[in-house]
Design a protein that fits this description.
about 170 residues; 3 helices; 6 strands; about 25% helix
């Protein structure tokens, strides 16, 4: 089995009903970059399995779901170090700047009651060095921001469930 070193690059979408608009590019939340008009994803999983007969799709998707939950937990804790190795330099730096903004404003963006409803590979290709695998993650969360001093909710709703679709692209 090839040792998987997966560097998380988020180039996909954050889609769904979300009153806070959490996405990396707007500086308001968790990992994810809004969808851009790009070419359709190639889903050549057969070639991946041919190159790597030990590739286990179920395990990969389980690892992606686990990373999604860990990412949400790290975001709420304002501490990305536990998942640092899974981010590119650029994404990590951007996310850290966002977290510093919350710290400077004495606020916390809470992502709670995280549940991954489904994962599936929607794109799979490779370049000269890497496999590039895009996973769609369907989830349910609550997402709100509180004032650290008072505990009052500033944005969002502690009780409103949001159903989100994320497209995360992994490089291995």
């Amino acid at each position: 089995v090839i040792t998987l070193v997966i560097i998380l690059i988020i180039v996909g979408t954050v889609v769904g009903r979300n009153s806070i608009g959490r996405n990396v590019s707007s500086g308001k939340g968790s990992v994810g970059i809004p969808a851009q008009n790009t070419a359709p994803l190639v889903n050549d999983i057969a070639s991946l399995k041919k190159r790597d007969p030990g590739f286990n799709e179920s395990k990969f998707l389980g690892d992606a779901a686990n990373l999604y939950i860990r990412t949400q937990d790290a975001w709420s804790a304002k501490d990305l170090l536990p998942i640092r190795s899974r981010f590119t330099e650029e994404l990590y730096a951007k996310s850290e700047r966002q977290i510093e903004g919350y710290k400077n404003r004495c606020q916390t963006n809470h992502v709670e009651r995280v549940s991954v409803l489904n994962t599936r590979i929607i794109g799979c290709t490779n370049d000269a060095k890497n496999d590039i695998i895009t996973v769609e993650i369907l989830s349910r969360i609550t997402d709100y921001v509180t004032d650290d001093k008072t505990g009052n909710v500033i944005r969002g709703d502690r009780n409103r469930e949001l159903f989100m679709t994320y497209h995360w692209t992994f490089i291995r």
